[in-house]
Specification:
Elements (H helix, E strand, L loop, with lengths): L3 H6 L1 H7 L1 E2 H8 L3 H9 L6 E3 L2 E4 L1 H15 L4 H9 L8 H50 L1
Antiparallel strand pairs: 1-3, 2-3
Helix pairs in contact: 5-6, 6-7
C-alpha cells in the first residue's frame, strides 16, 4: 500500500495499470458480489487503495481461468487447486499434469451428459409428436 500522498499523485497511473472492481465485473459479466466472493475464497487477490479494489493483469488472467473452469463444470475448489500449483518461476509440470487429468475426467463426464441430454431430447420430441397427433385428432372430432 502506498502512502496517501503518493497514492493521490499516482491515481492516473494506477487507473491505467489496474482495473477497478466495476470495470472488472462489467468486462467479465459478473456481479461485484461474485468478485468479492472469489476474493474471499482466495481465488483472486486485488490490490487495495483504501476501499478501492484494483485488479492487475495477473488477476484478470486468474479470473479468465476461473470463468473457463466454471463454464466447463469445474468446482471452485478444483479451479483453486489447479491455480495454486502455478509457479511463475517453475516448470509447472505438476500443475499441467493435474490440469490435464482433471480436464480428461471432466470431458468424459460432459460427454456422458451430452449423450443423456440427446436421449432426453429424442424422447421429448417423440412424446410431443404423439401429443400433437392426439390434439389434432381431438380438434377434428370436436369440430
Amino acid at each position: 500500500m502506498m502512502p496517501a500522498s503518493e497514492s493521490m499523485a499516482n491515481s492516473t497511473e494506477v487507473a491505467d495499470d489496474y482495473l477497478r472492481i466495476g470495470d472488472m465485473a462489467r468486462n467479465f459479466g459478473v456481479t461485484l458480489r461474485t468478485l468479492r466472493f472469489y476474493e474471499d475464497k482466495g481465488l483472486i487477490s486485488p490490490k487495495r487503495d483504501g476501499n478501492t479494489r484494483l485488479y492487475s493483469q495477473r488477476e484478470v488472467k486468474r479470473l479468465q481461468m476461473i470463468m473457463l473452469g466454471r463454464r466447463v463444470g469445474f468446482s471452485l475448489r478444483e479451479v483453486k487447486q489447479m491455480m495454486d500449483l502455478y509457479d511463475p518461476k517453475g516448470s509447472n509440470i505438476k500443475q499441467l499434469k493435474l490440469v490435464l487429468d482433471k480436464s480428461e475426467r471432466q470431458l468424459t463426464k460432459l460427454e456422458k451428459q451430452r449423450v443423456a441430454i440427446e436421449e432426453a431430447m429424442s424422447e421429448l420430441r417423440n412424446a410431443m409428436s404423439s401429443w400433437r397427433a392426439a390434439l389434432a385428432d381431438r380438434q377434428i372430432a370436436s369440430a
